[in-house]
Specification:
Layout: E1 5-8, E2 15-16, H1 18-31, H2 39-42, H3 50-60, H4 67-83, E3 90-91, H5 95-104, E4 108-112, H6 117-126, E5 135-137, H7 150-159, E6 166-170, H8 173-181, E7 186-189, E8 205-207, H9 213-220
Parallel strand pairs: 1-4, 1-6, 4-5, 6-7, 7-8
Antiparallel strand pairs: 2-3
Helix pairs in contact: 1-3, 1-4, 3-4
Length: 229
């Protein structure tokens, strides 16, 4: 039997990154004469990458940004965030032992994120979980990003996995829509950064804590995770 494959989103799924994303966005906004956006609000702006985050930040604080402003602030965002990528970011509770257990079981794992690839890899190293993810597909790795299904298909191919035994794990509409577009089952965490109510996203299973993850795996791929609960 082909080993199971798990594709994880990063921001809001593997780790709580909102503090650093919020501060970076606000630093750039204030440089350009805009007000800061409260962190509670930023959590609903994350998803789609840094450029889209800055676009949403401008929209939250006044007139929309021009294309020239977006390009400039995107570059500023990348530079500042790279220097402050894990000042406040932490793994969600239960994540580290879960990844170790999955790795021990031979599960194939990749990160599928709309974050720029080199920043995603930098953050995985900073969080000391990069060894679990031999494949990282970022927002700039391919000509497309989530919710395009090719973002997921590419990760599965590079892992040598099988689409039929793959689960997408995410927290937002981009993740779950990508899974739906790829005809793959999905697990959605309820504590991430979704702009829509999580029950409306259409995930196969919703979990409120990673302690519930083994049960979700057993429900979706019982032949692969029969003894996990």
């Amino acid at each position: 039997m082909t080993p199971a494959t798990l594709l994880f989103d990063l921001d809001g799924t593997l780790a709580d990154t909102a503090g650093d994303l919020c501060e970076t966005m606000n630093v750039i906004l204030t440089r350009h004469g805009r007000d800061r956006v409260p962190e509670a609000r930023v959590r609903h702006l994350v998803g789609g990458g840094a450029r889209l985050l800055m676009e949403r930040g401008f929209a939250e604080t006044g007139a929309p940004a021009s294309e020239a402003q977006l390009e400039q602030t995107f570059q500023e965002f990348i530079a500042y965030y790279s220097d402050h990528i894990a000042d406040h970011t932490v793994l969600w509770p239960g994540m580290e032992p879960l990844l170790a257990r999955l790795d021990d079981a031979g599960v194939k794992m990749a990160v599928c994120t709309n974050k720029v690839e080199h920043l995603a890899r930098q953050l995985l190293r900073a969080l000391s979980i990069d060894q679990y993810f031999p494949v990282v597909i970022g927002g700039d790795t391919l000509p497309v990003k989530k919710p395009d299904p090719e973002h997921l298909f590419a990760a599965v191919r590079l892992l040598g996995g099988d689409n039929a035994s793959t689960i997408m794990v995410g927290d937002s509409e981009a993740d779950i829509d990508a899974a739906i577009n790829a005809a793959m089952p999905s697990i959605c965490v309820s504590f991430g950064y979704s702009r829509l109510p999580v029950p409306e996203l259409g995930a196969t299973v919703i979990i409120d804590h990673f302690d519930e993850f083994p049960t979700a795996l057993t429900k979706i791929l019982p032949d692969h995770f029969r003894d996990w609960t």
